[in-house]
Amino acid sequence: MGENKSVENVGRREIIKALGTIPVLGVFFYKLFKKHALEEIRNASVMEELGELKKNPSVITSKEPGKLLRLGIIGYGGRGHALLRAAGFTTPEWTDDAKQRAEENKMDKGYETFVGQTDLNVVLNGVCDIYDTRAEEGLAASTNDDRPGSGTRKLTTAKRYRHYQDILNAKDIDAVIIATPDHWHAQMIIDAVQAGKHVYCEKCMTRTANEALDVYDVVKNGNVKFQLGHQNRQIETHLKAKAIVEKGILGPITLIESTTNRNDPGGAWQYEIEDEGTAKTIDWKQFQAKAPTKLPFNAERFFRWRKWFDYGTGLAGDLLSHEYDAVNQIMDLGIPKTAVASGGIYFYKDGRDVPDVFQVVYEYPDRNLTYMYSATLASGKSRGRVFMGHDAHMEVGRDLTVNPDPQSTRYKDKMEEGMVSASLPLFTYTTGSKEIDGITSATSKYFAKKGLVYTYREGKRFNTSHLHMKEWIDAIRHGTETSCNIERGFEEAITCHMATESYLQKKVVEWDPVNRKLI
């Protein structure tokens, strides 16, 4: 290590001069040593720019488990399953299937990662779902001891609730996970906070901008811990990217572009319509109570609710929300001044009213930058997420790459000296294994590539939703802050709703921060 230090501390001319004094070892060895020495100089030059950035993010901070926390979940659909699993509970069917996949594919670490999660010292006391089949699955999950911390405590069957108000009134529940369709989020958050329950809510935080204002005021004045479900806040490459921006490695950033490309039915919200889902097993009246349009029972609208603005928030609230929150985490952009969006229903002519092709341009004049987002649900072409600066551009996903700009002011001298090459990355950061648990779904692979499934800390793999859930539980116990609190949640909601309103009204939408309204 000492010899390498000495090489790094001398200049290019000194190295070449020193090479001339070495006894003749043959042309091959001379060239090899010279090449190695110059590479050491280049590396030292780059490290001078990057400082401590080459270090990995630290392992997750361990906190005392504290007293037992009693959880309830409202909505045990797709995301409800995933979030409850992040808290340490899942159905016997899931664990059996995960173990079977691991036996068939040694690279499949889904089960290993699940049982290796931190035991959060929580118990599931309540399950609320208006669909009988899913409620029963939630109850089964509450007593499945094939889980983190197996055998450490006696598990009892959770109570089934048919109305969310009842689970909020329960005395044996401290905190709730809300994983319902978007049109119920606002009312449930408000009622939960007023009932004194801590809240973890899936994104998008609300269905409308006005709802976001109401939620913000109630949560801000409440005495509970709130976490919005953007698990990307736990991705190690985002932490690295934020440090790179803060150190000015990219120079002035004037343009950011992020994208969504999916090309399979699941990615377009064409979910399975279960045979068990009928007017007898689903409380349709309760489902559509907060929806602006009331219709007779419709199984497709229940299972594929994301396809309609009556219940969901479209590409803006469902997928742009992930992209914006990642950018906001890295750049601290906040709410833009204006948004202009366009798109249409160009591929899935199936009666939906949310677009399957969508793009929006946000302007941040106070930051001298533009943020562009575009999406299609009919092409799998990966386009990534790029931060474009005067001196370098950075691509951020599960991995991270920084490339210098040929016209960079900051790296001009180093490029002229051969210390930095415009054709080579200035910095790369690669997370753990590139295997994706033998997942075959294109949508699952999309989320994995974005880093939304797993992340790594010091070589160990973590479920990002588990880390996000753990952060919320730790905040409840120890009074710490959550990374996607009501401030960040409000910024996400308003920013996404600006895009949706622009699309629907076919005009530029502006945020008025003084009067807190869209204009």
Topology:
Elements: H1 2-8, H2 12-19, H3 27-50, E1 69-74, H4 78-87, H5 92-104, H6 110-115, E2 122-128, H7 132-142, E3 159-161, H8 164-169, E4 175-178, H9 185-194, E5 198-201, H10 209-220, E6 226-228, H11 236-246, E7 253-261, H12 284-287, H13 299-303, H14 314-331, E8 338-344, E9 357-364, E10 369-376, E11 385-389, E12 392-396, E13 400-404, H15 412-416, E14 427-429, H16 442-449, E15 454-457, E16 460-463, H17 464-478, H18 486-505, E17 509-512, E18 517-518
Helix pairs in contact: 2-3, 4-17, 9-10, 10-18, 11-14, 14-18
Explain this structure:
Residues 125-230 form the Gfo/Idh/MocA-like oxidoreductase N-terminal domain. With 519 residues, the chain is α/β, with parallel strands linked by helices. It has three domains: 2-50; 69-231, Rossmann fold; 234-265 and 312-456 and 486-513, Dihydrodipicolinate Reductase, domain 2 (2-Layer Sandwich), CATH 3.30.360. Helices cover 37% and strands 18% of the residues. It has a ten-stranded mixed sheet with strand order 14-13-12-11-7-10-9-8-17-18. α10 (209-220) runs antiparallel to α18 (486-505) and α14 crosses α18 (486-505). The radius of gyration is 25 Å and the shape is globular. The relative contact order is 0.14.
- Strand arrangement in the largest pleated sheet: 14-13-12-11-7-10-9-8-17-18
Distance N to C terminus? 61 Å
Corresponding CATH architecture of the largest domain: 2-Layer Sandwich
Rg, Cα atoms, Å: 25 Å
What would CATH call the homologous superfamily of the largest domain? Dihydrodipicolinate Reductase, domain 2
Strand content: 15-25%
Count the DSSP helices. Answer: 18
Shape: globular
Q: What kind of assembly state do the chains in view correspond to?
A: single chain
Low-confidence stretches: 1-25, 433-441
Number of domains: 3
Chain-averaged pLDDT? 88
GO molecular function: nucleotide binding; oxidoreductase activity
Pfam family, one: GFO_IDH_MocA
InterPro entries: Gfo/Idh/MocA-like_OxRdtase_N (IPR000683), Gfo/Idh/MocA_oxidrdct_glycsds (IPR050463), NAD(P)-bd_dom_sf (IPR036291)
Protein name: Gfo/Idh/MocA-like oxidoreductase N-terminal domain-containing protein
